[in-house]
Amino acid sequence: MMFKKTILAAALAVAASAQAGVSPEEARQLGASLTAVGAEKAANKDGTIPEFTGGMTSAPAGYVKNAIRPDPFASEKPRQTITGKTVAGMEDKLTAGARELLKRYPDFRIDVYPTHRTVTLPKALLDNTAKNAVNAKSTDGGVGVEGALAGVPFPIPKTGNEVMWNHLLRYQGEAFTTKYESWNVDSSGVASLATAGEIFEEFPLVNQKEPAKQSDVFFRTKLIYLAPARRAGEGLMAYDAVNAAVQPRKAWQYLPGQRRVKLAPDIAYDTPNPGSAGTSTYDDAWIFNGALDRFDFKLIGKKEMVVPYGEYKLFAAKVAADVVKPNHLNPDFVRWELHRVWVVEATLKPGKRHIYSKRTFYIDEDSWVALASDEYDARGQLYRASFDHVMYAYDLQASYTGNHVIYDFISGAYNLTGMSGPYGGVKYIEPLKPAQWSPDALSGAGVR
Predict the structure, then answer these.
(1) pTM for the full predicted model
(2) Residue 330 belongs to a domain
């Protein structure tokens, strides 16, 4: 009898995991107590997080298409500054990485500016999100997604995997390109150019009218390195599908010395990323990218946290020496705000391999962008901390997250990747022709 009960419980668990989305009654919260993407519409109790009133849907004065976007809040002053001496009472609103930086470096500070809820999505994606709430579901233990239209797949998430999928499928426009620099700063404070490159990113599902199939590509990127000289001409290209269990990442690499394109299955997971001179893994990019199969993602809940936000000044910076300072980024270039974030704790699955045993992710409720993470080593000690400096492209209603910093607390080094200000910032473009996403095109682009 006990055996039958166990079988019945297991069957019910499987059936529950296969249910599509939330009930129609629960979905009616969208546009009422919740915004159309699932954030809390109301202000917080103290009024330090304002009510959502529709986001920013037009460009401010001075905007020029495909140029560096003007900062709509440039005249604002911090409402609070947190240092190692004044952090008492604020610890619960800071990530473990932010607290460690305050503890280690007396000149590190967090300037907390007024919070703005600027982010919204194009109407078609908001309409799709309402449909996704009841129709989308995760598959293969959360590794894949089924029944999702372009938009937020799980606006009322119930699991950590669903929150991570909201991040992976966040709206970033249809396609963009930018030239950028990646800088390493070693433990002695010496800054050096890790890489410079030109990157193309596309999000093929944005204009797809039908729910994505398991093998459909949702993200593809192509990167050509321009510097330093020893790496100039190298190229990388990768595709990610909506179910890595059905269609794992496809990746290719072009090396000028070999003059051929080869498959590169190691461009994933915890392989050291040479673009950051090895201070991060491939799946550290954009706080997290790639397959969800090596970790168990537990949804901790939602918290009010001080996180990087509205980073127009950092994106406009043109001189690396002004930004990359010994030990940490120049605090003058980083804007922090108080936002509600979803907290997801990822624990390495038994039998799986990764240099991180645990990771904690902080995902913005309005944009579904992962804004920060803490990484722990096999001993459970804080190993690294990442911050993504999100910039909202108000002209397209898209969030751009290419400016990423990761601190390594073991080596004392850090890396800033995505400094595009010297090259005019990010440019949103029409999708490339299919032939430009072929391995042969990668070899052509990488010729010195």
Answers:
(1) 0.94
(2) yes
